[in-house]
Design brief:
The protein is α+β, with helices and mostly antiparallel strands. Helix content is 18%, strand content 41%. It contains 4 helices and 14 strands. A hairpin with a 5-residue loop joins β3 and β4. The protein is elongated. The N and C termini lie far apart (74 Å).
Amino acid sequence: MEYITVKGDTREKLGKKWARAARKEGLIPCVLYGGDEVLHFTTTHSQVKALVITPAFKVTKLAVNGQTIDCILQDIQFHPVTDAIVHIDFLRLVEGQAIKLQVPVRFVGASPGVKLGGKLQQKLRRIKIKTTPENMVDALELDVSKLEMGHSIRVRDIKELEGIEIMQAPGTPVATVEVPRSMRSAEAGAVGEEEGEEVPEE
């Protein structure tokens, strides 16, 4: 599991007016949910940059009020025009308490379809799971060693892990090996030639 530290400062003032003022100062209003306490704080863009721009799943070590709290990024809101971060929700990790999160899919093995010239197209990059902090993983593995050209591999093919419940529909495609256009054209041309062949007279 990969961890990233985010430093924050608690805030006592709440409301939209205060939030706008904080953003003008280059700060991001944040809220930490979970457990027995809701914590309001601010952080900076530089503190959360490595957490936001990566597709990897990371646990946040929130350093605030002289303590360090393990949590995960729950929700992030962007400005509709500038794409600047305007608000972030974090969820505290409490041992034994189930949480829902999305983790990336990691492919293992070599696809026979890709070896023959097919292109692996990923349809689903993150999988929604339900688990507890002690059973968390940073990715789910999906074996593509039997994935032939023109075929798909689905959520139900993901390796099951103890303590983790997959929340996605089992039949949802995760990846497909597509037949390249050049190969489709060649096959179509070959079929056309066969259909156009004259049957010799006996």
